[in-house]
Amino acid sequence: MRNTRAIVPLFELSAPGRRGTTLPPSDVPYAPMDEILPAAARAHARSELPEVAEPDVVRHFTCLSQLNMSVDTHFYPLGSCTMKYNPKRNERLASLPGLLDLHPYQSESSHQGMLQLLFELQQMLAEIAGLDAVSLQPAAGAHGEMTALMTAAAYFRDHGRKRRKVLAPDSAHGTNPASAAVAGFDAVTVRSGPDGYVDLDDLRAKLDDQTAVFMITNPNTLGMFEKNIRQIADMVHGVGGLIYLDGANMNAILGIARPGDFGADMMHYNPHKTFSGPHGGGGPGAGPIAVRSMLAPYLPAPLVAFDGVRYRLDYDRPKSIGRVRSFFGNVGVLVRAYCYIRTYGAKGLREVSENAVLNANYLLSKLKHVFPVQQGDRCMHEFVATAAKIKAEKGVSAMDIAKRLLDYGFHAPTVYFPITVKESMMIEPTETESKETLDAFAEALIRITEEPAEILHSAPHTTAISRPDEVKAARQPRTSWAR
Q1: Taking all residues of the chain, what is their mean pLDDT, rounded to a whole number?
Q2: Rounded mean pLDDT, 56-75
């Protein structure tokens, strides 16, 4: 059956002065579809769709959703890429019509409220970082890394200083060397010492006049605050290089320490982890970056500016590296981060970090006698335990333990990262979990170590899929139920 109705523009559906839409008046003429769409764009036969009752559809998708774990249903101690609970009020606030219904092609005068929100978010993120300027444009943490390194490259070019090397510790997130390569630099690895901190002698040996940036995660992926961070910054600055802070672990130091104060020249945020935003399945994401004033001219355009009267998008930035994201990034995620920061305030953000650190240390104290932590008895927001002893005694690996945890109703922690720890399990409880949840998680891990090895080797036993080839599943996903 051919549809003969034309699509009526929204402004014709809305009464003057009213938001939303109404049905078109009966006297609006309709044009035949063949006058609106070319033949190549029209269907010539009915779609072969199954006739399914609504209850069956609802049950089907509800059952599918229950095959996966989520932070709304399970504890998710996924170290260094936290799946923490995000307040639902922020979801509701980001969905308010005055925010959700805006279009990036609207005139600036018609979305002053949104521009004010983004401008204030820039200011708040700069203050939290202890830096001077912020771009909200990058679409994810790794994208923020790349954007910051492109900004640094533009800075060096503009000053006639050709630099080719970006240094990163061996415990860094894998995105660090990847971002360096994408931005056109050579990635150089700096060793960590046995204590888990950057090996200063190895760093000193690799610093030279070709060093552009040293990328450092602080607190690092072992859950430790780099005690030599000021000395490291001085060493890098001494050869004319810049310090980049991988801000993935900012949730450990909010309101306590500012990267700009301990030597960082630029950094990125992971809003989903540090503040609030959906996370998982590859997005949506955001990765705002903050920089010192000398790097500000090179940030992506536009930034949000305020002239004392009106807010505007500032495109007049001749030294900018240009746009790195369509329109103005993932604004919905940024709105959630704004709501989170305004809700907590300065004192509340500090309490977020204090509770994240407290929860991590509580878990460490309950587990260290079973899963040793090579870097000591204290940590920041996360810690890296090792299952090497259990593997040597029982042949049970960190992966076996992680898989078995699924049967106990807990998502597994990150395993085998960082690679500097054998049979590593990176555990991050976040600030949002209760003592009861942490106790139950610790008890489950301890009970697993007491189970027969054969049970663990074949775990999980309660999931629809047990042990897929994870590399193949990621690269060649099966997207249908066909066997």
Answers
A1: 89
A2: 88
